[in-house]
Amino acid sequence: MIESLLVANRGEIARRVIRTARRLGIRTIAVYSDADASLPFVQEADESVLIGPANPAQSYRNAEAILSAAKATGAQAIHPGYGFLSENADFARAVADHGLIWVGPGPDAIDAMGDKINARNLMAAAGVPVAPGTTDPAATVEAAVAEAERIGYPVMVKAAAGGGGMGMAAAADEAALRIEYEKVRAFAERMFGDASVLIERYFPRVRHIEVQILGLADGRVVALGERECSVQRRNQKVLEESPSPAVTPQLRERLCAAAVRAGEAVGYRNAGTVECLLDPSTNEFFFLEMNTRLQVEHPITESVYGVDLVEEQLRVASGLPPTFDPDALSPSGHAIELRINAEDPKRFLPGPGAITTWVEPEGEGVRVDAGYAAGTTVTPNYDSLMAKLVVSGPDRSTAIERARAAVRDFQVAGPKCNLPFFAELLDNPEFVAGDYDTGIVGRMRK
């Protein structure tokens, strides 16, 4: 097993990785920016290194500073968490070049899945269903219009190098496509340094389903069930649950088999997620993208499968077998994750600030992965995620009841907070029935 680990991230995910590493007897090193000096993860690591100012480009995305910290502290391995450099193939290569262990998939797999067009083509070749769309970038608006006519409206315009719900827009007709194409192309160039755009069929009513995969040290790829991620605002997830209320055992088998094929197609190792769109009217699903890292919502899979995915990541990176029997995986119970963000509960606009009250809920089936505490400050420099409230039970109705109680008991004052939104959502008839799609938040806010 790895003996010392630098966590190249911040907030709740850094704290969460440190927790498992320390349980396993691994020495932990945190890196932090000026803005994060007082956060819990900095104090909880065995050693902490200041790597730069609040600007992520000068700290958490500064590969040179992170590698220097690893060398100075004698770290043996680097865990990137999610976001920042977690899906940066060049950083993964640099880690290996410095003689360190990268706790994640190989850089070739990251490269292969980082471009949405390349990923689509690879998945189609591997027999994974993909939505009708382009096999090459639409280099001009006229090319985009021609592809849309072939595919059929409505279409989705996507930044090929995008991720996290950013760089995409729907177009119902040619006039809208011409406008959105230019917007997405400009956004992609500005945000990702790559203006490549793809055109894909847009499904007005769709569910967002993803499958957790784990590429083992012996070369096998296994699937640990699915997560429902259809509660979204601005194409970004705010609540996830597992298992999905829309997925039957037969559909789960098909989804997991496709996800395993996806992982095998790129020689995948370590934890990753295969994201799909599910048409609830036909039960057809289509490959969306692969996230070559640990997901924010991994705790709900941990809950229903009884595994610690960070521990499994560390075991794979160490060349060790998993703690579970890959041939005897089966889910038990139901889990829901709510992303507690520092944002307005109506319009979902960020509202950072100093936390004056922070009281976490307790009780059976309640887990809180928090990045903050009373007396700390949510700054505008990073994502608004403050904590993840994970609630589980023997069945979905019990999990929902426990989630309602936990939301009532969670006390946050200082920054804006989206807890009132979750109180509303957990009583929403569509959500309670399990018959919802990615448009549920939009319908709630009409």
TrEMBL record:
Signal peptide: none
Keywords tagged on the record: ATP-binding, Biotin, Ligase, Nucleotide-binding
Domain Biotin carboxylation: 1-446
Statement: the UniProt record of this protein carries the keyword Electron transport: no
Keyword Ligase: yes
MF terms in GO: ATP binding; ligase activity; metal ion binding
PROSITE patterns registered for this protein in UniProt: ATP_GRASP (PS50975), BC (PS50979), CPSASE_1 (PS00866), CPSASE_2 (PS00867)
A Pfam cross-reference name: Biotin_carb_C
ATP-grasp domain sequence ranges: 120-318
Alphabetical list of SMART domains matching this protein: Biotin_carb_C (SM00878)
Name used for this protein in its record: Acetyl-CoA carboxylase biotin carboxylase subunit
Record organism: Rugosimonospora africana
